[in-house]
Write a structure and sequence with these properties.
20 strands, 31% helix, 580 residues, eight-stranded mixed sheet, alpha+beta, globular
Length: 580
């Protein structure tokens, strides 16, 4: 009787679904792999679709591993041609678009997916970065569609991306690309997308993601909540992450989970809670399994780098990393007020930069949870210089005021605010959100000290992102997060051909573009580091962006969450954790 009762109880426990719950501060914009450029969408889409390559979840330093691919790319000696072989027998999740039949992923699906990035119809924010890769033939296909106003010709071959057979891809590039594997790693933009699905859902494809990953989209309340469910058709994949020798914490995780079938949880519920306080309280009340510690609460929850005793007694744990990101302000270089390349226009931006106090932001608003940024290049990436000290993080209001005086920014009408050199009003319009009120107040105080009038324009992130890409925002406060351990994606914040994509400042300077292109051709080493440093100096001189901080991230989680390890680049962690 006892044995039977225990068996029944065990069966009942096994039937209880494991639901991972956490919250983010901004909501996803799209789940179409070619349709987004934000981390919130990437975090969700990365569990629905699978990249060709991924980073090992436990390895530090990071290590690239095949995912859809069967092995690392086979590169030609000149780094212009790459062969990528796909694993056979991987299938898309079930969808009506497939007519009730299993649909295997083949090389043509990857060709189609990458061509979609170049199709003007989709207005992909991924286009500038993929155009920069220089995949032969794709740019001409795009230009033909733009010039003729005819649909993009997917049937026309492009030399740079060819399916040699069902499971083999060949890439040919315009120029050497030593880090080409990073273009295919940890991102679902160049993944497999089924043409049948895109044609079935059309412009609504962003709401109907169909991939091969461990989860499928169960529901999406836009702006509120996304629910992922275990993909019932997911192939048999087992936990086999490989921590670095000597990393005892990671080795313990690997020993505990090795061999477990993925995913280990049944559902993932991701809520959008924009304000820090309700998001943090939801975690403390046990409603969420995991939470990023808001800086406001770090002195009480994580004093001196340790979990507060009251939280520790409940079993709450924490992990801390220097995030590979940069928080920055974008100046729209096409804007008549803050843009331009004339000395007086550059002086205004540099004065604004000198008048803002990065150190105070770290000290008071982030409670020490950040590093004042000396450039846009963040920690954990090649090109980051921890010894660099620059004007980017210098606070010098006297020098700022002197610059404004020198270039004719004076109060001409006696209203207490500086005007432009031609006498027209000077009003800074700073686009922000309700959750950033303390940052807005710091900006207002520091600009008032310079005699600069600033107005704040609150809005929702997705709408602001679209407006910024179209060049319609004067100033915008945002962050850029690394997806690979390299400086190049951050230098793209100022790269001319990336205007409308990563280059939201719309900065165009041939000298900077030449340095960007030069560093992209070089292998990692001192020469490349020197070129990156030169490019950083130009960004500092022209100030199209004002870098604020590189954030320090602390994740706190309840003991029921097993296997969680905060990774600097992997955002779609859902399949690597369990609940007990």
């Amino acid at each position: 009787m006892l044995a039977a009762a225990l068996a029944i109880a065990g069966a009942a426990d096994a039937a209880v679904p494991k639901v991972l719950r956490y919250a983010v501060e901004e909501h996803a914009t799209s789940l179409d792999p070619s349709g987004f450029a934000d981390i919130y969408s990437e975090e969700v889409a990365g569990s629905i679709f699978e990249p060709l390559y991924r980073f090992d979840y436990l390895a530090r330093p990071v290590k690239v591993r095949p995912q859809l691919a069967a092995a690392l790319p086979e590169a030609s000696p000149d780094q212009r041609e790459f062969i990528v072989r796909l694993k056979p027998g991987i299938f898309f999740s079930d969808d009506p678009a497939f007519g009730g039949k299993p649909r295997e992923i083949v090389a043509e699906d990857v060709v189609y997916s990458i061509k979609r990035i170049f199709d003007p119809r989709w207005k992909s924010p991924q286009y500038p970065s993929f155009s920069d890769i220089g995949i032969k033939g794709l740019e001409s296909l795009r230009q033909r569609a733009v010039e003729t106003h005819e649909p993009f010709d997917y049937a026309k071959p492009a030399e740079g991306i060819v399916a040699l057979d069902a499971h083999t891809l060949r890439f040919r590039l315009e120029r050497p690309r030593p880090r080409f594997v990073f273009d295919l790693t940890n991102t679902v933009a160049p993944t497999a997308v089924a043409r049948e699905v895109v044609e079935r859902y059309g412009d609504a494809i962003g709401d109907h993601p169909v991939g091969s990953g461990p989860f499928v989209l169960a529901s999406w309340q836009h702006g509120s909540k996304i629910v992922l469910a275990r993909n019932p058709a997911y192939r048999e994949v087992h936990y086999d992450e490989e921590p670095a020798p000597g990393d005892t914490a990671a080795e313990a995780v690997a020993a505990q989970l090795r061999g477990r079938r993925l995913p280990m949880v049944d559902r993932v519920e991701i809520s959008t809670i924009e304000e820090d306080q309700p998001r943090w309280l939801s975690f403390l009340q046990g409603e969420l399994d995991l939470a990023a510690l808001p800086a406001t609460y770090s002195p009480t929850a994580y004093p001196h780098g340790h979990v507060a005793p009251g939280l520790a007694r409940q079993g709450i744990q924490a992990q801390r990393i220097a995030r590979p990101d940069v928080v920055y302000t974008v100046f729209n270089m096409d804007d008549p007020v803050v843009g331009g390349y004339a000395p007086s226009q550059v002086a205004l931006r540099r004065a604004i930069g000198l008048g803002y106090d990065n150190e105070e932001e770290v000290r008071t608003l982030r409670r020490g949870m950040g590093l004042p940024a000396q450039s846009v290049v963040p920690p954990s990436t090649f090109g980051y210089d921890p010894q660099l000290k620059s004007e980017m993080s210098e606070y010098d209001p006297a020098r700022a005021n002197a610059l404004l005086d020198l270039y004719g920014y004076a109060d001409r009408d006696g209203d207490g605010w500086r005007d432009r050199p031609d006498g027209s009003p000077l009003v800074l319009q700073y686009h922000t959100s309700a959750s950033l009120r303390p940052f807005n107040e710091l900006w207002e105080r520091r600009m008032r000290a310079l005699g600069l009038k600033i107005e704040f324009m609150p809005g929702q992130w997705p709408e602001q992102a679209k407006a910024a890409r179209a060049g319609k925002l004067m100033l915008w406060f945002l962050s850029w997060n690394a997806s690979v351990p390299d400086a190049e994606p951050f230098l793209r914040l100022g790269y001319g051909p990336a205007v409308g994509g990563e280059n939201l400042s719309r900065f165009r300077l041939p000298a900077f573009d030449a340095l960007y292109e030069r560093q992209s051709l070089l292998p990692d080493g001192p020469e490349r580091s020197a070129v990156i440093a030169q490019a950083n100096r130009l960004l500092l001189a022209y100030m199209p962006v004002k870098a604020h901080v590189h954030r320090i991230g602390v994740s706190m989680y309840w003991p029921r969450l097993v296997g969680y390890r905060r990774h600097p680049f992997v955002r779609s962690f859902h399949s690597f954790v369990d609940l007990q």
